[in-house]
Amino acid sequence: MAVSANVLHIIMHTFGDMAKALNRSPVYLQGLQKRFELPIFKGAIYSDAYLLFLQTVISLRTLNISEDTILELWRIERKLLLLLHADATGSPTWLIDSCGSRRNRKRRLLLTNFDIGVYLAPGTLQLGLQFSDSTKELFTGKEMGEDALTLLNVYLNASSAIRSSLPAEIRQLRTALRLAKRLST
After folding, report:
1. 169-174: long-range contacts, CB 8 A cutoff, minimum separation 24
2. In this structure, are strands 46-47 and 12-13 parallel, antiparallel, or unpaired?
3. What pLDDT is stored for residue 147 in this prediction?
4. Alpha-carbon distance 175 to 21, whole Å?
5. Which uninterrupted H or E stretch holds 78?
6. CA distances (Å), origin 118, targets 53, 106, 114, 157
7. Given a cut of 80, is residue 62 above it in pLDDT?
8. pLDDT averaged over the chain?
9. Lowest mean pLDDT segment, chosen from 101-105, 115-119, 120-124, 154-158
10. 31-49 pLDDT tens trace
């Protein structure tokens, strides 16, 4: 059996490698692991996706998004993916295994980078609208997935708030980069 030249090479990292790549202390990264309830491994077993998830969190903090805001979005994404039964792999890192994927960017959740399958912009969901009397449903709204739709709407509002704050922070970041360049020469 011949192996294709397009075989994906998976690079695994040690915890120390990640600390060095992210320019953060091991203690800081351990804190992130605990607060985000991420699996902790020994040896070179951390995937690129794991590293990229941590990089996303650190980048959002650099862009002045509070850790509480990021943790709340993480909680929402995690709950949404659990409601959608998105764990098809059984991987201990299944929530973040999509981090790094560049395909269908507009359909992906902000932190987990999970592809939800459709593009949904904030404001596209309006739940609870009832225009006429209807007959009683056989199943309750919860059993029919109403909770997932409600949670998706909460997610869209929370991620939209984060995204809308970024342009102002990008201007500040550019100013800081110019200062760092001037001070380091």
Report:
1. 169/63, 169/64, 170/63, 172/64, 173/62, 173/63
2. antiparallel
3. 78
4. 24
5. helix 67-83
6. 22, 8, 11, 16
7. yes
8. 82
9. 120-124
10. 999 999 999 998 888 999 9
Tell me how far CA of residue 10 lies from CA of 44, 50, 88, 96, 110, in angstroms: 12, 12, 20, 15, 23
What are the structure tokens assigned to 120, written together? 């949904």
Provide the CB-side half-sphere exposure for 171 (13 A, CA): 3
- Asked if 83 and 147 count as a contact pair (C-beta separation under 8 A), the reply is yes
For the record, the structure tokens of 94 come out as 């299944």
Tokens, residue 182 = 């001037």
List, in sequence order, every residue forming a beta bridge with 46; answer none if it has no partner: 13
pLDDT band at 120 (very low <50, low <70, confident <90, very high): low
**pTM summary value:** 0.78
Give the count of beta carbons closer than 10 Å to the beta carbon of residue 95: 26
